[in-house]
Amino acid sequence: MPTRRAVAEPAGRRPGRPRSEQSRRAVLRATSQLINEVGLRAMTTDEIASRSGVSKATIYKWWPTKYAVAVEAFLSQMDAQSADPDTGSAREDFRRTLRGLMRFYRSKNGRAYAQLVGEAQFDPRIGKELREHLIGSRRQVMLAILKRGVERGELSPDIDAEVVIDLIFGPAMYRLVAGHAPLNNASADAIVDTAMRALAR
Q: Which residues are paired to 90 by β-bridges?
């Protein structure tokens, strides 16, 4: 029977000179605006610099490509929409987190995020950015929820954490890409309820 995997350390920050938080927010805000206005592919680093008031050279000190900036902008949006609620109930934590993720996916930024996932299939650098600085960070939130649920006796300890995360949160990405089913609160609740019936201790 699979055993529960240990929770990994959160994805580390990129090395280099500390960033001005005000400048960082300006760059991420400008990036989000441009993604919605002109699209991910058409957006340029020059446009990000012009709109944010942060020099192109400084942006490249902090992010290797425009896609890396986009990844962090998406992560900022996901954190706002789908933070760890820590309600004291694994079911409720999963439900709220999945609802927030679906809310992000059905927004304009969510559609742009789907484009970024598509780009990652052809550019390994984008895939690396996604895994290390966005997907990895979100999975840490999910692992924390799972760990608390096991410790409280709500969830069986004899589960594979990575599989559980895919089981609960994978359908949201599938629906985003395939567009075959809604990304709404009712869908999120149904997915969590179904998964919890299999995972409950």
A: none
